[in-house]
Design goal:
By secondary structure, the chain is of the alpha/beta class. The chain has a single domain, classed as 3-Layer(aba) Sandwich (Rossmann fold), CATH 3.40.50. Helices cover 37% and strands 21% of the residues. Helix 6 links the parallel strand 4 and strand 5. Helix 2 runs antiparallel to helix 10 and helix 10 packs across helix 11. The two termini are 36 Å apart.
């Protein structure tokens, strides 16, 4: 799947992300949510210029609106115009300004040494030329700036992959649920080697969590949101399959989560 296919299809708007976010919000076992934890990792001055690449619907800012220092100057960017529209709507009632721009991470439209921090969360694996994007990030960071880049471990959601294949042995998993070549090439295990070519210090921080799913429909919606659109008949058959699995497993399907963030410093 090409960069443009993702922009015009999977990430045209936040509808597919919302289905996946719903499963995490309802069935995660860690009561301290991902977005709150992620914000805890930031170590920035009270007056900081911040750039987010691939902001999506701006959920991290919604979840942390009251925690954002008044002195932060924040620019949110995404390669999808639809996502920028969603971000604007989601932050319309937040009583602080944000700047919004449609932008490709491979061509960051700012001058050198502009930002104290760049955030790139669960998006670098979608960038065709990651090396170029990382050089661009380094270029726009101040000498003391930080890159925060979240991604997944290779075991993330492994039970979902098994569940889908158990339902349909012919399922094409390329590009679904984090199995595209780019995702495999920039995860917890493989991302460090790419980052250390640009940044002097690279640290990984784990977010401890898992899923304990007790309802079939949110799980079906999550899995189906990551692939080709399913017909109503296909979805109904998949929901029935998951219902049987839930009964067989005593009412709970446990699912591994393996997410975290790389914290990168130029020196």
């Amino acid at each position: 799947m090409t960069h443009n296919d993702l922009r015009d299809g999977q990430y045209k708007d936040a509808s597919n992300l919302a289905k996946r976010g719903n499963l995490h919000a309802r069935f995660s076992t860690n009561p301290y949510g991902w977005f709150r934890w992620l914000f805890d990792q930031y170590d920035l001055p009270s007056n900081a210029k911040v750039l987010e690449l691939g902001c999506g619907p701006a959920w991290q800012w919604q979840h942390n609106a009251e925690r954002v220092p008044a002195g932060w100057d924040i620019t949110l960017t995404d390669f999808s115009p639809g996502m920028i529209d969603e971000a604007r709507r989601n932050l319309a009632d937040v009583s602080r300004p944000f700047a919004f721009r449609v932008m490709d991470a491979q061509h960051i439209e700012f001058t050198d040494a502009t930002f104290d921090a760049v955030f790139a969360h669960h998006m670098l694996y979608h960038v065709p030329d990651r090396a170029r994007a990382l050089r661009e990030v380094r270029r726009v960071l101040k000498p003391t700036g930080m890159l925060y880049a979240s991604t997944n471990g290779p075991e993330h959601l492994r039970e979902l992959r098994a569940l889908r294949l158990a339902f349909d042995q012919k399922a094409d998993w390329r590009g679904s649920l984090g199995l595209s070549p780019d995702v495999v090439e920039f995860n917890r295990e493989t991302g460090r080697a790419q980052l250390v070519t640009i940044f002097e210090r690279v640290e990984w921080r784990d977010y401890p969590d898992s899923l304990a799913v007790t309802e079939p429909e949110p799980l079906a919606d999550f899995i189906l949101s990551a692939g080709q659109p399913a017909s109503d008949m296909q979805r109904a058959a998949f929901v029935r399959f998951i219902e049987v699995e839930l009964t067989r497993r005593g009412g709970v399907i446990p699912i591994t989560k393996a997410s975290g963030v790389f914290v990168c410093r130029p020196a």
